[in-house]
Amino acid sequence: MESSFPLYRYWSDYPKRDVEYVRWYPPTMQAVDGETILEALGRGPEAAAFYLHIPFCKDVCPYCPFNKYRMRDDRAKAFMDGVFREIDLVAAQRHKRGTKTSGGYFGGGTPTAMETPDLLRLIEHTLERLPPERGSEVTMEANPDTVDLEKLRQLRASGINRISFGVQSFRPEFLKILGRTHGVDGAVKAIELARQAGFDNIAIDLIYRVPGQTVPLWEADLRKALELGVDHISTYCLFLDPGTRLYNETLMGHVAAYPPESEEVAMYQATQQVLGAAGFVHYTINDFARRMGRRSEHHLMNWQAPQRSYAGMGPGAFSYTEGDESFIYCTIHSLQEYLDVLKEGRLPVRLANRLTPDERRSRYMVMGLRCLSVSKAGFRRRFGQEMTDVFGPPIEQLKEWGLLDEDGEQVFMTERGRHFASNVLKAFYTPANRGKPQAIGVELLAGKGLSLVSVGGQQRTETGT
């Protein structure tokens, strides 16, 4: 069977539509010593959030590109010992600088796959060492079949004030294709239980362009989410990342035909129409909030210009630190190697990019336009230059193509530009980063793969099963 889905096309110039998901920038990274990053944290900003990657799942979904392992008690115990050390290393450097914690995010993986006592102990340790400022957002990712009412109540009491469920679909046939371990009733119940547990900020993820999906079926998923009263909906087109099981199964012709690109475009348009009619705010390429106060602070910190610093911890976490020197870096993906380095008292970082001035300006635009617009005055304040003096040619070219527009205050994606979002973002890449793919977690774990051409220094091979 021949797949209708384009397999790993990580760079396409307009008028071809680029479909790679731009998660971070710059994509290029080189080997670095963890001590260099620790020193940078000690000179870092006055405020920074944290992201804690908990790399365990009840099962491994076939489409997921992130660093993860099947949950096992021995792995969880070893991880807890290691990540406590990493949290302490990061907190010590931040305390030297007096850095305040502006928010937090526990992601994965599936954090709630951990046993409740272990998870609560991890939350307590993290929030004690990196206490968030009053009123800041602290999110926990969860799968519907890894929570019950008591667990949710305990999470809420521990300091988690936002929960995000990986629902992905309200159709059983699509949950099966996506390898999800919960059912439709389980997803509905988890959302209802979260309300009972005291959560007033509930987010869900949904996936479209699943094999066999149609526009009406996708619209039904969106309407079901609205019916359940969730506060935030992230909508993701199914992208086949190399190294994932679904990619390999599709390559071998074992997966039913995917909806064509025209259907994907129609699904994205339907998303904007259905959620827009319900009053939801469309504030990033993929994200919709019931109101402005329900936008994800984690997304805004990562992407909205000017982007803010955050410290990623846990195996495979990415970080960004803004200061006299700006770094993007990631922790070691291999769980065993991550633990070995921490036992030696060192920060488990091997890959980083010390951004050049050009890359800092470029990142401001690449990440900023994920939030659909970038302020000209904000750019001027940050860099002391006019945006159009630095990026005049790509702005004019994107305007000519109908993908970007501007007024006196900002540049912003057009309706057409949102369908070519990755083309728009990549127009602001520096020459050294053009044509370079985003390194994919499962391939960083394996230390080999198609996505690692822009990464220097390989990871040691280790299975995530």
From TrEMBL:
Domain Radical SAM core: 42-278
Entry cofactors: [4Fe-4S] cluster
A GO BP entry: porphyrin-containing compound biosynthetic process
One Pfam family recorded for the sequence: Radical_SAM
Primary residence: cytoplasm
Cell compartment(s), UniProt: Cytoplasm
UniProt GO molecular function: 4 iron, 4 sulfur cluster binding; coproporphyrinogen oxidase activity; metal ion binding
GO cellular component, one term: cytoplasm
Keywords: 4Fe-4S, Chaperone, Cytoplasm, Heme, Iron, Iron-sulfur, Metal-binding, S-adenosyl-L-methionine
Function of the protein: Probably acts as a heme chaperone, transferring heme to an unknown acceptor. Binds one molecule of heme per monomer, possibly covalently. Binds 1 [4Fe-4S] cluster. The cluster is coordinated with 3 cysteines and an exchangeable S-adenosyl-L-methionine.
Sequence similarity: Belongs to the anaerobic coproporphyrinogen-III oxidase family. HemW subfamily.
UniProt-recorded name of the protein: Heme chaperone HemW
Protein species of origin: Myxococcus stipitatus (strain DSM 14675 / JCM 12634 / Mx s8)
